[in-house]
Amino acid sequence: VQLQASGGGLVQAGGSLRLSCAASGRIFSASVIKWFRQAPGKEREFVAGIILGGATGTYYADSVQDRFTISRDNAKNTVYLQMSSLKPEDTAVYYCGAGGNLYYNGVNDVRSWGQGTLVTVSS
Questions:
Q1: C-alpha distances out from residue 8 to 3, 30, 46, 54, 57, Å
Q2: Residue 8: how many other CB atoms lie within 10 Å
């Protein structure tokens, strides 16, 4: 599966931004799409995940719970990450990845990565 992430940009603290991850190729109904982020000098960390297809299920990192919402458009094979109440510490390159277990927040089971999109939150 190929992934294309977009939607990053510069936003003030407290603002909102929506990221998109468009998937193409061999997309299976039970696929999982996850968002990760990587700040300068830090490891890539899990943000949120969602199941594609007929099943339902989402999972969030504690740090973004209640501020970020992950959703999907099955017809468009696109996953969105709506980010609200953004904080400077949310500044990072955001990556979407396909595959793996929804409730596993490591990077090791992600089979395909999209290119990153930079989110910068100014204070």
A1: 15, 27, 17, 28, 25
A2: 17
Kind plus residue range of the DSSP H or E element containing 9 = strand 9-12
Per the CB < 8 A criterion, the answer to whether 33 and 52 are in contact is: yes
Task: Give residue for tokens 């949310």.
Answer: 90
Are residues 80 and 90 in contact, defined by beta-carbon separation less than 8 angstroms?
no
Q: Is the pLDDT of residue 109 over 60?
A: yes
Going 58 to 105 to 47 to 108, the CA torsion angle's sign is negative
* pLDDT at 55 (0 to 100): 76
- Write down the H helix ranges in 13-71: none
Over residues 41-62, the pLDDT tens digits come to 999 999 999 998 777 899 999 9
Cα-to-chain-centroid distance, residue 99:
13
